[in-house]
Structure formats: C-alpha cells, structure tokens
Specification:
With 306 residues, the protein is α/β, with parallel strands linked by helices. It has 2 domains: 179 residues, FAD/NAD(P)-binding domain, CATH 3.50.50; 97 residues, 3-Layer(bba) Sandwich (FAD/NAD(P)-binding domain). The chain is 23% helix and 25% strand. The protein contains 6 helices and 17 strands. The strands form 4 sheets. Strands 1, 2, 5, 6, 7, 8 and 17 form a 7-stranded mixed beta sheet that branches. Helix 4 runs parallel beside helix 5. The protein starts with 6 loop residues before the first strand and ends in a 5-residue tail after the last helix. Bound molecules: flavin-adenine dinucleotide. Flavin-adenine dinucleotide (FAD) binds next to helix 1 and helix 6.
Length: 306
C-alpha cells in the first residue's frame, strides 16, 4: 500500500439518497467517511417528491441539499468527483478518481443508482413530466382512467404494465423482444395488457401533453401517458471487476439484508440493488449499509484478538 495515497475508513460512492444516508450513519460511528460523486447526477435531483414519508411536499434538490449538510455536520467529507475504477489492494480498496487522484478505503458503499435508458425519440424530452415518465411506481397515480403505453420488454416494463392495470383504463406494452422470466411472461399473456411485440416507438406526439405515440409500422396509439421502462444501465463497471455478484440480468448488485455483497468490505444500497426505485428504499438500505461498512472498517482497524 502506497502511504502517499490518502486512506479513509469508508468511501461512499454516490451522493443520492442512499449514499447520503449511508454517510450520515457511518460518520456517526466515528469512522472517517469520504463521499464521492456529483449531486446533480442523482435521479431525484430535478423532481418533486410526494411519496417520501414525513416530507410533504418536497423536492429532490431539497432532500439532497439537506442530506449533504447533515452528513457533513457529522464529519463526512465530500468530493464532487466520479470514481473511474476500484481495485482490491492488500485487504483494502484503491479507487481511481476522474481528477487523476487515488484514495484507499477499508470499506466501500456502492450507491451509484441506475441510469434509466431513454428512447431518444422526438417528443420524449419535450414532454417529460407532461405524460412522459420513467417511473411507473412514481407516477402511476397521475394516470387514473387514462390510456397509457409502457415501453420495454424487460421485467421492469412487464411489471410496470401489469401494475398500471390498476390505474389506467387501457394499457399497451410496446417492445421489440420480451426478456423476462417465463412466469411473468405468462402473467402478461393472461392479463388485459395489449401487447405490441416486435415494435419500436419512433415518436411521442402532443403539443402541451402527450396525445399519442407513433410506432415503426406506422401505427399510432392514442395515449395520455408513456412510461419508458427500458431497464437500468447501472454503473456496474465498478463492481463487476471486483467479483461482486450481479443479478441474472447483470443490471443490479446482489446483497443480503445487511447490504453486504459477496465481497467482504463492499456494500451496496439504493437503486443499484434493484427495484423498487424509490427514495424511501434507498434511504433504508443506505442506513444499513453505512452502519455495516463502519463496523467492518472498525473491525479491520482493531488489533488481533481485540
Ligand atoms: C423522473 C423520476 C421521478 C422520480 N420520482 C420519484 C418519487 O416521486 N419518489 C421516489 O421515492 N422516487 C422517485 N424516483 C426514484 C428516485 O430518484 C431514486 O429511487 C433514488 O434517487 C435512488 O437513490 P440512489 O441514491 O440509489 O441513486 P441516485 O439518487 O440516482 O444517486 C446516484 C448517485 O451516484 C452518483 N454516481 C453515479 N456513478 C458514479 C461514479 N462512477 N462515481 C461517483 N458517483 C457516481 C450520481 O452522480 C449520484 O450522485 C424518481 C426517479 C425518476 C427518474
């Protein structure tokens, strides 16, 4: 281990709700905590939140600003830098940062969230929040009695389409190929969801709000809502090279109830561990991960037999 490189007990990667809560709980256990990442990269940063307990109404920006102040109050140090890679190093972890620096940690909390893939079609950005959504769980209630489309063929999209049946008058599922477990595919087949297999969305249409979607075969579906559920493209490049176990779809990190991964010293919390993608879940997992990571770092620091 190079003594020139700064050493900390716990590095939290990600400054979203999961990372902030992990930092708060770890820092209160009197270990050194470094939090890496840009707050503006959190998927809640630009959004209103109306289903997070005890804060109603609130915004993502407020939650994040408060969380950062709180974590800093308890001693966590923030660096607005991204992590490029992590390597195991003599029982510790060496992180390479985008600014060229390095840092060594005893324990790591991975809280990098997931990037929801966009369709990249006309109307998608313009109508975001006006009928276009990336989160069924968050926005389902706004589409009571409406006709909606869910786009995507993975488990997230199928789950989303089935869940929307409780809210919407009619639910379409548009996908190129169905990539989901057989039991879920069967549930879909038996449901009232109208399937459009082998189809792509080429445009989202509407002036002030979504009015329709255009498919690649020329069909036009009159809908008031479009949920883009193309699955998560997590920042798993950091985890996989360390041998961290991912789920079957290679999208999320597997943890136990203590938020431990299969690699001792590596914990994960929030969207990166899979759905539901919600602030409340991220915060709960962050709490557990922060406590466990701090305990791990303290065990490493303790003399043999202590
Ligand atoms: C449109 C939309 C609306 C939503 N509305 C709601 C809602 O109303 N209620 C609700 O509960 N949830 C909502 N969500 C979901 C919510 O945003 C997420 O569940 C929550 O933000 C997850 O927290 P997280 O900490 O796991 O990840 P994030 O908040 O996404 O944070 C990830 C962090 O990791 C950082 N990061 C990523 N890669 C690296 C790297 N290599 N190095 C360093 N840092 C990195 C990012 O910059 C960011 O700081 C919504 C999501 C979207 C997209």
């Amino acid at each position: 281990m190079n003594p020139q490189i700064p050493h900390v007990d716990v590095v939290v990667i990600g400054t979203g709700p999961a990372g902030l809560q992990a930092a708060i709980h770890a820092a209160r256990r009197k270990v050194s905590v470094l939090v890496l990442g840009r707050q503006s990269g959190s998927s809640i940063y630009h959004h209103h939140v109306e289903n997070y307990c005890c804060l109603f109404p609130t915004t993502g920006e407020d939650i994040l600003a408060n969380g950062r102040r709180q974590a800093a109050h308890f001693g966590a140090v923030f660096r607005d830098e991204e992590v490029l890679s992590i390597a195991a190093d003599d029982g510790r972890f060496r992180l390479r940062l985008e600014g060229g620096g390095e840092v060594v940690a005893k324990a790591i909390v991975l809280a990098t969230g997931t990037a929801r893939r966009s369709l990249g079609v006309e109307g998608e950005k313009r109508l975001l929040g006006r009928g276009v959504s990336y989160c069924v769980e968050c926005d389902c209630n706004f589409f009571r009695g409406a006709e909606v489309a869910v786009v995507g063929g993975g488990s997230a999209a199928v789950h989303g389409a089935l869940a929307m049946l409780d809210y919407a008058r009619k639910v379409h599922l548009v996908f190129e190929t169905l990539e989901t477990a057989p039991a879920l595919a069967e549930e879909l087949r038996r449901s009232a969801v109208v399937q459009h297999p082998g189809r792509r969305v080429t445009a989202i249409l509407g002036e002030e709000a979504v009015e329709a979607i255009q498919l690649d075969d020329g069909a036009r579906l009159s809908v008031q809502g479009v949920f883009i559920e193309l699955g998560a493209r997590g920042v798993l490049e950091l985890a996989a090279p360390l041998g961290v176990l991912l789920d079957d779809e290679m999208k999320h990190i597997q943890t136990n109830r203590r938020m431990e991964t299969n690699v001792p010293g590596i914990y994960a919390a929030g969207d990166i561990t899979g759905p539901p993608w919600q602030v409340a879940k991220a915060v709960g997992e962050g709490c557990v991960a922060g406590l466990e990571a701090a305990a791990y770092a303290r065990r490493l620091a303790a003399p043999e037999g202590a």
